[in-house]
Design goal:
147 residues, alpha+beta, 2 helices, 14% strand, rod-shaped
């Protein structure tokens, strides 16, 4: 599409350049002393067209349009490559961050499990100590009651 637009503009400019126009101005003095001005514009388009010049201009325009299109395509490809590289890097970074989070979550889970186990052991030991104290107190009370 961009090539067609540029070609249309060049052809329009070339067509205007091949047109010759002449402007004639006549002033006539009337009998009463007033002056009447008449302007005439004559536009001539030459009957002979130099097809060699037109073909050369057409080829030149086509070459320039192709070169411009290629530059645009190259720039677009470079931009796409940069975007793809950035997306790949971001994907790798996110994957690594996910792995790091998973590793840390596993560590925290193990720490919680270990802490819960320790609390359970402490609770059992406290219960044993409490039970032994209760037994000792019961024995002492039994001894006191039997005296």
């Amino acid at each position: 599409m961009k090539k067609q637009i540029l070609a249309a503009i060049v052809i329009s400019v070339f067509t205007v350049a091949c047109t010759k126009s002449t402007t004639k101005t006549e002033q006539v003095e009337n009998a009463d002393g007033s002056v009447t001005t008449t302007t005439t514009t004559v536009t001539e388009t030459p009957n002979t067209v130099d097809t060699a010049k037109i073909n050369n201009a057409k080829e030149d325009v086509k070459a320039k349009v192709d070169a411009a299109g290629n530059k645009i395509d190259d720039a677009a490809q470079k931009a796409k490559d940069k975007i793809d590289a950035t997306a790949d890097k971001t994907k790798q970074d996110l994957h690594k961050a996910g792995q790091d989070i998973k590793t840390e979550a596993n560590k925290v889970g193990k720490d919680i499990k270990s802490g819960a186990k320790e609390v359970g052991q402490d609770a059992k030991e406290a219960a044993k100590k409490g039970a032994s104290k209760v037994e000792e107190a019961a024995k002492k009370m039994k001894e006191d009651l039997s005296k």
